[in-house]
Amino acid sequence: MTTSTDTSTDLEAFRAEVRAWFKANGKRIDDHSAVEEADGETVDYLARARGFMNKLYDAGFSGLSWPKEYGGQSLTMNHQRVFNEEANGYDLQSSPFMVTLGMCAPTLLQYGTEEQREEHIPKMLRGDEVWCQLFSEPGAGSDVAGLTTKAVRDGDEWVINGQKVWTSGAHFSKFGLIVTRTNVDVPKHKGITMFIVDMSSPGVTVRPLRQMSGGSGFNEVFFDNVRVPASNLVGEVDHGWMAAIGTLMNERVSIGAGGGGLGRGSGTPQFDNLSELATHVGKKNDGATRQELASIYVEERLIQILGDRMRAGMKAGKAPGPEGSIAKLSGSELGKRSADMAMTLLAESGQAWTDGDEIAARWAGSLLGSPGGAIAGGTPEIMRNILGERSLGLPKEPQVDRDMPFKDVKTN
Amino acid sequence: MSSMSEEREALRSAVADYLDANYPIDKVQRIADGKEAVPADAWLKLSQGLGLAGLVIPEEFGGQGAGYAELGAVLQEFGRTLAPLPMLSSAALGTLPFLLATDDTVRRPYLEALASGEATAALALTEAAGEWPVTAHETTALQAGENWHVSGSKSFVLDNGGATFYVVSAQTENGVGIFVIDGADVTREALNAIDLTRAQSSISFEKAPAIALAVDAGDTIKQLQELAAILISSEQLGGATAVMNMFVEYAKIRVQFGRIIGSFQAIKHMCANTLVEVEKARGAAEDAADKAAAGQDDLALSASLAKVSCSEAFTNATLTNIRVHGGIGYTWEHPAHLYFRRSRSSSALFGTPAQHREALLVGLGY
Fold this sequence. Notes:
The structure holds two protein chains of two kinds.
Chain A: H1 8-25, H2 33-38, H3 43-58, H4 77-87, H5 98-111, H6 114-126, E1 131-134, E2 150-154, E3 157-165, E4 175-181, E5 192-198, E6 204-209, E7 218-229, E8 233-234, H7 241-257, H8 269-280, H9 287-315, H10 324-346, H11 358-375, H12 380-391
Parallel strand pairs in A: 1-4
Antiparallel strand pairs in A: 2-3, 3-7, 4-5, 5-8, 6-7
Chain B: H1 6-22, H2 25-32, H3 42-50, H4 68-81, H5 87-94, H6 96-100, H7 104-116, E1 121-124, E2 140-144, E3 147-158, E4 165-172, E5 175-182, E6 187-190, E7 200-214, H8 218-253, E8 255-256, E9 259-260, H9 265-293, H10 300-325, H11 336-348, H12 353-363
Helix pairs in contact in B: 1-4, 4-8, 4-9, 8-9, 8-10, 8-11, 9-10, 10-11, 10-12
């Protein structure tokens, strides 16, 4: 990773710049951050977060390791690491941009046309364009390739009909990356095409879904004769599956180990929060508590190291491999364990609390969010299948429809 | 996903080839069983061939001048094959105190003898069970003119059946020091170890003549303990990788209920869970070795992180190995138990996971 631009003097100068900038512009994470995070789904929060992203971009701290020609800084992973260290403890307000920067932008970088990259990536890095990822369907959740949303060519346009679901942030996204069925006469993986879709196009209807946590970050999205210009094609007609896989792999790294252009995944927030909580409830010196706390610290650091290694690999030109599933699995397991530990520490007051008890409210939110974290981006069982089959080369699950023309496949 | 440089990879691969050719697992089993002995000149030959005894010894003392990252890569191979040679005990742990010592006239003869493979050294810090990091050194060193004499005992010493010399920590009037004593001056008692592939002993010595490597060396002893945890972690990582490969290969050929068992999700997911643990442990072990190589002063956090994650990954992998193999995995003839034994032993040495977790919290100021 060593290049002429990351000598220790350069890095130290860079560190000083980042530190000064955060001191002047950053907001420390305090006990209210969880409350902010919970309404990270609202348009208000988005506006504030976008303001912060604009400032970050103008200061030259967005997309540190991304190519300069698309608005990044073309710096090294060491710069990213330094940035992460300095950003630790500050609220990056990054949750609305996670899908945009962690998943959609890398897909455009890899599979998009030059025009698409030049047009969108700088705006994504600046926070001006929020994107969503339109993959899952009611009848095709874990089996993404079973999708039935159709795109049909009509002159210089494509016409899309169908329904997507579990679409995070669709209600405030300007664009979406959509995968569609363009050929039913070939096996399911071979007739898929990816497009950029303008979410304000006529025929697009976004309906928020209320989750078990009470939040509404997900949506169902309906496409009724939505017309998309042919120039919005990403990759090749009928060969969108590879691009989709690329997005999904980025998604797993991003969900599990933080990422995107922002430097999420820095610090050890679960450990910091839980150690504070343990002190708060008077269990700081309890042996079992200390062991579990340390285990959470270890898990958190291991995921960070793994994420750093994956991102360094990606920067060196390696597409993320099935290892992204390791981050995804570990991240959701850590979320569950952290919530469990907090509920153990809080005991009765974790399940019922008085108004204004922000600590209890925040951990209850975390508890109710953790099952969703495990499913989002693929269930643990799907991740383990991917690791078993793609990383370890074990025989595939028997799939009766793999080589069958899609029109003959039994769908839900 | 490995961050290994090409040079390090070439070294690792040469060591792998040598060990596979000379210490296949069935031979290691016969040695563990006492049916075959390690040739007396095995270590010397390996030192002459690949220079492993002097791998991290500077070239001016006859060594290879490699760093901790290379040493970590080589230790992974020894962990993978369980080759009963003093790579960890002497070339890594036994050599460390001399690397950290500063007086060339004192350390030169030892380093030269170690680099040639003609001598082996063993590091002996621990005195009582459950003592990590070692802070109370009941062994004492007394100075009489130019000479030192040490008295006391040490236990759980990895010495592959007896080292040429032992490096012990001992209390002096001016702090804790590090001393070298001749193997001939100690009474060695072999311990009954669950690990059949690595000998351990307790040693005692009474007014044994000693050479002082360092006096008032509290910081160096702390550093020795951190490096010991990092080095054994690399070896554990190699062991964990080996058993994972062993049961994954088996899952690809064993047929039950008319199917290859690796196609059953229950088995596939056991394999995947091990992969997750091993890859995270790899990150921690290689990160710690890189930090040691970069000369970072305080390695405590990285060392504990590596020791916890590698111990747990290795321990869990060895159990999964037995489970995936079924009954055959629980037989004496199958090598699974050798790895199971090694994992439990290595997990307890140089700080248990629980001790390192506690140390992590203390290190973080909690």
